[in-house]
Design brief:
Largest sheet: 7 strands, mixed
Order of helices and strands: EHEEEHEEEHEEHEHHH
CATH topology: Rossmann fold
Family: Belongs to the PTH family.
Distance between the termini: 48 Å
Protein name: Chloroplastic group IIB intron splicing facilitator CRS2, chloroplastic
Shape: globular
CATH class: Alpha Beta
Mean pLDDT: 82
Strand content: 15-25%
Structural class: alpha/beta
Radius of gyration: 18 Å
CATH architecture: 3-Layer(aba) Sandwich
Strand order of the largest sheet: 5-6-7-4-8-10-9
GO molecular function, one term: peptidyl-tRNA hydrolase activity
CATH superfamily: Peptidyl-tRNA hydrolase
Keywords: Transit peptide
Number of helices: 7
């Protein structure tokens, strides 16, 4: 499999990358000219029509807050999911661009850009919007991963599109995608605040030991779901995944 980067003449306001790697694939994807770039992967074996197969890239962004004090909190499970994907797929997160920590790699033969915005939760769209424009990733291939209080802790839901559900980070992403909501999202259930507990305090709280076990299981299941989505799209397996997730903690 070989990698190719098409660079149309339209210039971009995004600054050049601040770090790189000796990996030739990474150098190809993060070349220094500040031009709007389209990521493609060309298969090494031609199809019957003697044309190389090309794969549309995915931008996979987890929402969260940067900094050690937020690590392991409910509001940062989006970051945790991206970290787990990077670990499983062997993608190194060591590039800084557009207020984000990035990892460039692939899932199977499909190129992916893993993103952890460093602009804090309520402004994460300032990072994701410009990156999607720079790499010319279509809306249908922008996957946003975030925490969801309307779902029980550890329950996942994968959707083709939707609103922001009063999630400030997701709302900011929509605003920086020109108000478009037609992008996939993976929501990770964190439950709701008990009693009259302040919502902000709940979001910035770490999980209990029992909740942590459920989240760790969800992260493993989420990695499999993301891989299926990237390789097969919204197939019947995704529908089955959502159904299983909905009832996975129900006792018979």
């Amino acid at each position: 499999m070989s990698l190719a980067v098409a660079t149309p003449t339209t210039t971009s306001a995004i600054s050049p990358l601040l770090s790189s790697s000796s990996d030739p694939r990474r150098r190809a994807l993060t070349a220094s000219p500040p031009r709007r770039t389209r990521l493609t992967v060309v298969a090494s074996v031609p199809d019957p029509a003697a044309r190389p197969a090309e794969y549309t890239p995915w931008l996979i962004a987890g929402l969260g807050n940067p900094g050690g004090k937020y690590h392991g909190t409910r509001h940062n499970v989006g970051f945790e999911m991206v970290d787990r994907i990077a670990q499983v797929e062997g993608i190194v997160m060591n590039t800084i661009q557009s207020k984000s920590l990035l990892g460039v790699g692939s899932i199977g033969e499909v190129p992916v850009l893993l993103v952890k915005p460093q602009s804090y939760m309520n402004y994460c769209g300032e990072a994701i919007g410009p990156l999607a424009a720079y790499y010319q990733v279509p809306l249908r291939h922008i996957l946003v991963i975030y925490d969801e209080m309307s779902l029980p802790n550890g329950v996942l839901r994968l959707q083709r599109k939707g609103g922001h559900g009063r999630h400030n980070g997701l709302q900011n992403v929509i605003e920086h995608l020109d108000g478009c909501r037609e992008f996939p999202r993976l929501s990770i259930g964190i439950g709701s605040p008990p009693g009259k507990m302040d919502t902000r305090a709940f979001l910035l709280q770490k999980f209990s030991s029992e909740e942590r076990v459920q989240i760790d299981i969800a992260l493993e299941q989420g990695v499999d779901a993301v891989r299926t989505l990237v390789l097969k799209g919204f197939s019947g397996s995704i529908e089955r995944f959502n159904l299983v997730q909905k009832y996975k903690f129900n006792r018979v």
